[in-house]
Structure formats: C-alpha cells, structure tokens
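FAQ: What does the model actually see?

It sees only this:
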Amino acid sequence: MTRRPRLLAWYRVIPVALVLLFGCASWAYAYAPAQLFQLFYPLRYEEDILSSATEFGLDPYLVAAVIETESGFDPSAHSDSGACGLMQLMPDTAWDMVHKGYVSSDEVDPDNLYDPSTNIRIGCAYLSYLISYFNGATDHAIAAYNAGMGNVDSWTDGGQDLADSITFPETQSYLVRVKTAHERYRELYPDSFM
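And it is asked to produce this:
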C-alpha cells in the first residue's frame, strides 16, 4: 500500500500561513485607515510646534517626527544619559543655544526642559542650528541630533555619503525612523500646520 502525500500536512501549512500573515500585514500597512496609523504617530502640541518651527525656519512635520522618535510625545521622558523632555535635550545643549543667541533665557528657562513649550522651542533652535551647520543637509542634521556633530563630521570627512558611512547602528536606525515618521506625519495630518 502506497501512501499519498497529504495536501494539508503540517509542514506545508506553516509556510502558507506565514505567507498569508505577511501578506495581510503588508496590505494593512499599505491600505489601513489613517485612524489606525494615528495611534502609532500621535500629534500633540501643534501650536507650540508650529510657532517654534516657523520662528526657526523648520518644517513642523520634521519637528513632530523628531519628537515622536525621541520621546513618543511624552513630556516627562528622561534618558539614562540625562536628555530631557519631548525633544530629549541635554541641559548643556539647552544652555548652549542660549549662549549662541538662538534663544533668550529671559523668554524661556533652559533649566525647565520638561515644559513642552520650552523644550520644543529650544529643540527647534538646536535643530535649526544643526541644519545651518551642515549647510541645509537635513539628513546630516538628523544624524547629528542623535550622534553629535563631531561624529557626523568624521563620517563624512572624506566626502563619503552619510547613509553609507554611519558607524553607529542606533544612528542608522534613528535616521530611518525620523525620515519615515516625517513622511507619515505629512500624510496623516496634511492640514495640521496651515
């Protein structure tokens, strides 16, 4: 008596189930309603983002993307390295923006980085400073926001392409996450910063 192979044997069902699972996930990612993605990309503090982004000549959607990537819009976020608030600013960086004249300590208190308005304003000043430092190269500024200006300078010192020369996996991931969030915020909230 010969045995015929069964069509739905367990070892055949698993790959088919995996393909179906990934197919459904891909379909949901491509065609899911905006409300579903808004759970993953929330938007708060729109007025503060718009006023500070406008003041410093930034795209408010980029600012929202940095906030989402840095803190997930949690104003009480605190990192092990000492970064504080929505845009995860180091206290030294906040004071540096005061000393460079980007913000006035009469208008904002650099020691109050857990205040959303203060944090967003100083964070926008710093992001604007980085974009200016890198002659408008936004990708360089985003990488420097995560890894520091010195690292980005050393990675691109010989004229190498930034994406190919980043040596920190965290910064590579950070750059991709901010750029993805930037696109998502533009798609999900097209009228938020009019």
